[in-house]
Every structure is written in structure tokens, then in C-alpha cells.
Amino acid sequence: MRQQAFLRRLALGLLLLAGLSAEAFSLFPGRKDEVATHLRRADALLARADAAYEAGETDAARRFYGEALERYEELHKSQPDLHAGLPRFRVDYSREQLASLDQMPAGTGSAPVETGKRLHR
């Protein structure tokens, strides 16, 4: 009798465990997963924009900041409280960077300045 109860509990536990792992590896992401995916894509665009800006590639930086701005605006509309308002902060940052780029002629930028000094390792 005790052995049957144990086996039932064990079987139930294994079913629950299998169900949770199946949900974790679902091919059809839930709403939270979709939001996280959109945020990661926007973050990747923002990182590319910053890299282009630092490399002096203002045309590419404008394009990437614009695309990131659109994604962050969508995220802000759909999830305004996401990560304590992170999309709003990134919307503002992207707009500031675009405004800064608008002050520069196309094809120029602020590339890192060579100081001639080397760090000893």
C-alpha cells in the first residue's frame, strides 16, 4: 500500500517535471518570451549603433539608432513598466544620439582619438 502511494507520487512528480521542461523548450514562445526577444533585438541594434558611432560611421549609426528607436517605442507602448521603464530610457537615449548625429555632416563622426600612449601589460 505504501509502495503504491510512493510510486504514484513519483510518477506524478516525473510528469510535472517533464511538463515544466517541455514548456521551457517550447517552439511557441509565450508573451514574456516574445517581449524578451524584442528587447534583445533592440539592444543588439543599439549596440551596433553605438559601435558605428564610435567608429565614425555616422550613416550606419543613424540607421541603427533609428531602427532601435522604433523597436524601443513599440516596447514602451506595449510594456511601459518593463524593467522599471527601461524602454523609455532607451527611447530617450536613441533620440539624443540621433540629435547628436544630426549636428554632424553625413559620413563623419567622432572616432576615438589616438593619444599615442600605449598601456603596458
What this model shows, in words?
The chain is an all-alpha fold and 121 residues long. The chain has a domain at 31-104: Methane Monooxygenase Hydroxylase, Chain G, domain 1 (Up-down Bundle). It is 70% helix and 0% strand. The protein has helices at 2-24, 31-54, 58-78, 86-102. It starts with a helix and ends in a 19-residue tail after the last helix. The model is unreliable at 111-121 (pLDDT under 50).
Tags for this entry?
121 residues; mainly alpha; Methane Monooxygenase Hydroxylase, Chain G, domain 1
What's the total helix number?
4
User: What value does the average pLDDT take?
Assistant: 77
Structure classification: mainly alpha
Quote the distance from N terminus to C terminus: 71 Å
CA-based gyration radius: 24 Å
**Strand element count:** 0
Low-confidence parts lasting 5 or more residues at pLDDT below 50?
A: 111-121
Can you summarize the main beta sheet?
Answer: none
- Which architecture name of the domain at 31-104 does CATH use? Up-down Bundle
Helical content (DSSP H or I, runs of 4+): over 70%
Portion in beta strands: under 5%
CATH class of the domain at 31-104: Mainly Alpha
Overall morphology: elongated
- H-E string: HHHH
CATH topology of the domain at 31-104: Methane Monooxygenase Hydroxylase, Chain G, domain 1
